[in-house]
């Protein structure tokens, strides 16, 4: 068939078939996008090939977007309980790598196969990408393909069975998480207070330093029948009503400063409005909220900021990020000026400027080609390689966010599209290359590969839950999320999510996943040295 000699036709044919097979569920389990590599292995076994440039293009796109997505979570993961989660993650990755090394040393399997088993047992596509970059051998993909099915199923079975074996109290874990979440991200509320404190009569809001003293924001004031915006030079009079926005703790401080709360309401002045303003103007990214002098210039007040689903009390030192949603009170006329400053254009969030992506990948490739020497001429040399260089640059740039006019961060939709595209191209190319050596590998190693892959999947999880008992007391749901993140298993997270109505597993997963990915890539590169 003439079409089968055209690489672009084979490429998209494998992707189509892979998606069809990947969406088939057996006992609630599916291979999802990873089914593409099995289809590619089948095609490769029958002599069909994909040009290597397709795989290399997919590799850099996939790894760069992984870095962009993982960067902020990686650097933030060392805060608070994240340190405990990182310890468990390290135990999982390092023990899995140790088992891989022992299997290579004792059984004599090729190191490329062993590393493939490691990445497949942890169901890690980034690990496979790093392994392929470190060892240019189709045996890596074969090992991955052998270990991957149980890498998915084994994690799901463990997540489902372990809570029953230990008779875990899910309700208690939910209550504990809710208390912790409330303490870390307290709910933003609003309340009306009557001015009663004689000590503040005839004093201005600026003199009272309301924001710095209480961490609350005054959004409007009613003096007699007149409603006004909270200008710093407005003097409070006895009987005035003020509306304050902040956490419960901040509102209690307002009550101590101002007077008792009341059920009365303050109507919004007809010349003022309250609107949500989206930050989409590149020029304001990373600038502090106080730098705009909104009140003195536009008589506008920001009462709260919503970022990544969390309400934040605004402060002059708060640095703005792309996609922040500001709740602003201002006059009708000045609101348009506020829109102009911050952008308020949701279309820009879906637009993708490809220049920062291309520049970031170029910088990553340059870093990957650097060789660091330790010691004299016979000392140790380290080269991050294509995968390491692109990943590190992506993580750093995502953390920086902006350099001059360049916005490094991308919208979630754009990141997901490039990541999926890169992963598909990469899986097709490495899969077809691996398929050519499939029969020879199984003839050489037999079913030992399945056993080794199973051990790499199960032993680290068992070890992690045993050690978790000796570490700082840990929320059970967070432990389950940590295991799925450490095993880089999205299907595993999908299995634990129905256990609870909280997002405890997802929070832990998001914290440890980037750490696990980086550690695994480092371990892969270290193991490759022995190969």
From TrEMBL:
Kindly list the GO molecular function terms attached to this UniProt entry: monoatomic cation transmembrane transporter activity
Transmembrane regions listed in the UniProt entry: 6-24, 31-48, 54-75, 87-106, 142-162, 354-376, 447-467, 479-500, 506-530
The record's principal subcellular location, in a coarse class, is: membrane
Q: Transport: present as a keyword of the record?
A: yes
Q: Does the keyword Cell membrane apply?
A: yes
**Keyword list, A-Z:** Cell membrane, Membrane, Transmembrane, Transmembrane helix, Transport
A Pfam cross-reference name: TrkA_C
Q: What cellular-component terms does GO give this entry?
A: plasma membrane
A GO BP term, please?
potassium ion transport
Mode of membrane association: Multi-pass membrane protein
* Entry-linked SUPFAM superfamilies: TrkA C-terminal domain-like
Q: Where is the RCK C-terminal domain?
A: 178-260, 261-344
Compartment(s) where it occurs, according to its Swiss-Prot or TrEMBL record: Cell membrane
**Which family does this protein fall into?**
Belongs to the AAE transporter (TC 2.A.81) family.
Q: What is this protein called?
A: Putative transport protein
Q: Which organism is it from?
A: Natronoflexus pectinivorans
